[in-house]
Amino acid sequence: MVSRVIPVEEFDLVIFGGTGDLARRKILPGLFRRFLSGQMPAGSRIIGAARSDIDSDGYRQMIRDAISEFGGAEKSETGRLNDFIAQLHYLRVDAKGEAGWKELHELIRFKVVNAFYFSVAPSLFGDLAERLHTFKIADNDSRVVVEKPFGRDLVSAQELNDTLAEHFDETQIYRIDHYLGKETVQNLMAVRFGNMLFEPLWNNHYVDHIQITVAETVGVGGRGAYYDKSGAMRDMVQNHLMQLLCLIAMEAPSQFDADAVRDEKLKVIRALQPIDPHHIVRGQYDVNGDEPSYREDAENPKSFTESFIALRCEIANWRWAGVPFYLRTGKKLKARTSEIAVVFKDIGHSIFPGDEKRHRNILAIQLQPNEGMQLQVTIKEPGPGGMRLIDVPLDMTFAEALGPDADDTDAYERLIMDVIRGNQTLFMRGDEVEAAWAWTDPIIEGWKARNDVPKLYDQGSGGPEDAMALMHREERRWREIKE
Ligand code: BG6
């Protein structure tokens, strides 16, 4: 299956923080792949802007190296890489001073789409936004792209929103949550709203509970300084898991357009009930032989920050009242996997003698690394000797079903192209981010007030024992974490 490439208009994309980690690892390699698929029109330019004292040639070399390292450019693509690199420019710009801004004004073209990617610390958003206006670099059609973390609580998120709103309209602001750019995350909407089969069952009459798991095998080594001030709640739940929850729980928007989708997501977040502290388990990975503990990785021997969290929440609306949603995410777990499982209620009465098992249909959607869907159904165990029932998965691994050329577009490339197209559907609106913080803030404040200490868990496990108990005491169990 060959993916369809929809061309975009010619553009100038300025990346503030253009020499940074995200730019080198994700943004530029992603743009190169879009270039290879013919989606970057001739004449489009990418302008790296940062403090480093290099020129455009130095920048081109830096990005050439980055693409070889992170972008997997094949030898056969060297010629194409040269063509792409020729579209790169660099300007030394001081976010807090005067340097570089006049030059940027002269470089930017207003007759093509122009976008400004703030791949910098949020504390610089205000300075950048202000200078883009003062130096008349951005106009009413320009777009700004901002990265997570979007604040660390409601107040700081509101401040960021206000700062951006001083210079840009909401329709110009693209807040990235890269989970929304993942192929299968979008597929959640296709599965729900493109099929008749699931919708009638998608409610508290038929669904027992829903599990959302985002498990990682990596630790926090190398980014301990950031992570230790954040923890799994701020780093993953407030944004990525919350977005997955919204897509799985929201009502059908009247159409697939930015505000219709975001209105429905917002309603879900606003309907989330405050959580009872007994319904949350926080964990920290322990030392494992030569593998450092979380506290060593974070270089904070007294850290109370969680590298794992499991929680049970409820959405107070007609569709979901009474249905628990169990969310968990953590570092240094058994396998890297992201999965959503919709566990249906068991049948009320079995007509088969001796069949005492509570059979349940489960729709499991794997987001990564092996994208696919399984529907667990109950059938007769083949062979003579009466009616014995077994549960088997109807399995659809997308790579098998859709062929080896199934689209492997990375989240960042898809999202950047959406910015150029002016499509905000897969970006978070300001009110959504604020509502998510309004829900998480009291939880985090509760931990602080109670001096909550995370439970230690073994590296390579499924998290602390208490996370299992969170389910077991309600006679449910987590699905196994496996690739
Ligand atoms: C980032 C978090 O937003 O998402 C990281 O800051 C996390 O801590 C990462 O590792 C996970 O993203 P992915 O795409 O690898 O699942």
TrEMBL record:
Residues noted as binding substrate in the record, renumbered to the chain: H178, K182, E216, D235, K331
Organism: Octadecabacter dasysiphoniae
Residues in the signal sequence: none
Keywords: Carbohydrate metabolism, Glucose metabolism, NADP, Oxidoreductase
Protein name, per record: Glucose-6-phosphate 1-dehydrogenase
Glucose-6-phosphate dehydrogenase NAD-binding domain sequence ranges: 14-187
Residue numbers binding NADP(+): G17, G18, T19, G20, D21, L22, A23, R24, R51, K148
Reaction it catalyzes: D-glucose 6-phosphate + NADP(+) = 6-phospho-D-glucono-1,5-lactone + NADPH + H(+)
Annotated Pfam families: G6PD_C, G6PD_N
PANTHER family listed in its UniProt record: GLUCOSE-6-PHOSPHATE 1-DEHYDROGENASE, GLUCOSE-6-PHOSPHATE 1-DEHYDROGENASE G6PD
